[in-house]
Amino acid sequence: MTNQKNNHMATDIQLKTKFSLNWGHYIVMAFVLFMIFIGSFVYRVQSNPKYDNELVVDDYYKHDVHFSDELDQYQNTEKLAHKPQISTSAEGILLTFPSDIDSQKVQGKVSFYRPSDKKLDFEWPFSKTSPTLLIPKSKLAGGLWDITVSWQYEEQSFLMKQTLYY
Length: 166
Prior knowledge:
Layout: H1 2-19, H2 23-47, H3 60-65, H4 67-79, E1 85-88, E2 92-96, E3 106-113, E4 122-127, E5 132-136, E6 144-153, E7 156-165
Antiparallel strand pairs: 1-2, 2-5, 3-4, 3-6, 6-7
């Protein structure tokens, strides 16, 4: 009888250990499910062309080499008594140079960078004959724009950056 009882207990123990899950098993299962979720999310984002994860600048290292030049140009702009102003209007984006800058001597470009879509980036070169420059609304899609204005005036280079929601 003792032998039968021991066999029966051994079977119970085997069943309990075979089918019982403790808290450690649940943690491992939750971790595996979480990894599957994250993996599927990463796969969906990487394979969908809607979420294009391109570089901010194509030639990042080349661009980085000229950073000190940009810093000098930015400091030149900070020294100006009156700085150019970037504003929005019903017709588009307006760049206005102050009256103490002779607009006949200004040459440069306005770069429009769209963080959400590289295809919308463009540059607008200018040689000033009037103190204002209008970038028409037709060239701009609604949303966030990083605008960089770089210009030369009296043999000095200047740089100004502004983020604008249009």
